[in-house]
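Possible regression after last week's pipeline update?

I re-ran a chain I had predicted before the update to compare outputs. Posting the input and the new output here so someone can diff against the archived version. Not blocking, just want to make sure nothing changed silently.
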Amino acid sequence: MKLVRQLRRARAFTLVELMIVVTIVAILALIAIPLYSANTTAAIMSEGVSGAGTIRTALRTYYSQNGSFTGATMSNLVLGSADLEGKYFAQADYTLPTVTASTYVIKAGPPSKTTRTSLYYQMDQNGSELGTYYTNQ
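New output (post-update):
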């Protein structure tokens, strides 16, 4: 009889044991969620950087044909219709806000295929990053 009572008690978890498990899970969640969010943002922006590289190649082609970047627009660059279409960015998300005879700036973003409205990337003619912004996480 005494052995049966002890076996019944041994099968259940105590409230303290359950609270310890809940606390550990909460701590792990507090660590994992921000890391996941940062990695998701980086994945989105890598697509924007890749698209900017595609535009940079098209601008180099434009320069070799025309001798300057003057007059280069997104519509007159040699790009295929699907070259800039991705999971997060569409072709309309890429702009050339600054174009002179020897310089340009490519802006990628914000990505129209996500709810993140303040993510963008800027690159100049040297391939230098002018800014990457992740303000809406």
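Follow-up from reviewer: compared with the archived run. The helical segments are 2-11, 15-66. Marking as no regression found.
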